[in-house]
Amino acid sequence: VFPSLAQAQASVANEVYQELGQPSVFLFCPTEYCSSLCSPSPSQSCYLLTIGQELLPGIGVIWTGPKVVSQELSAMQLEEVEGVLRRRPVIWDNLYANDYDCRRVFLGPYMGRAPGLMSRLHGLLLNPNCELQANFIPIHTLGSWFRSELRSCAHSDHAGMETVTALEDSQGSEEGSYSPQDALELALHDWVAEINRQALEPGR
């Protein structure tokens, strides 16, 4: 029925999206969801070019970066993907994922993501460690990164200043750009406090 896999996928996704009344959040994960899966590259992939052309503009497209588990993400990489998909990608960040290797637990801070990425994203999802308690530092430091990105956006666009001010009032103002080490120390401080709080609960 369809001349290519990409056209088949886009057609089905578009039909489901429309049948559901075009919801505000509707995500599509392409077969080529990172640069290493693209042939020869994201900007020259016939598959991604077709997805970008055929998929309705309200549908978000998931992307993991250069690799399935990307150690770094840059604005230049995301700009290339945005060009071929004709929309900003939704990053599915596998930095902390360990479902593929149960011996791996990543307790470090959110890092390797260049400043200014937020303006190139439609959204960001964090794929966590399978062990619930191991995700305190990942999620806490992601929050620090996010607030830093909000402040950066606010400096270039004052429209977001009220949101930034509200966040800083509730979380405390942090000077300068995002520092993984500073974010880690803040997360560890709060994690110890949370552990101590739980230790005092009856039955613990």
From TrEMBL:
Protein name per UniProt: OGA GlcNAcase
Pfam families the record matches: NAGidase
Domain GH84: 1-150
Top-level division of the source organism's lineage: Eukaryota
Residue ranges of coiled coil: none
One annotated GO biological process: glycoprotein metabolic process
Species assigned in the record: Haliaeetus albicilla
Molecular function per GO: beta-N-acetylglucosaminidase activity
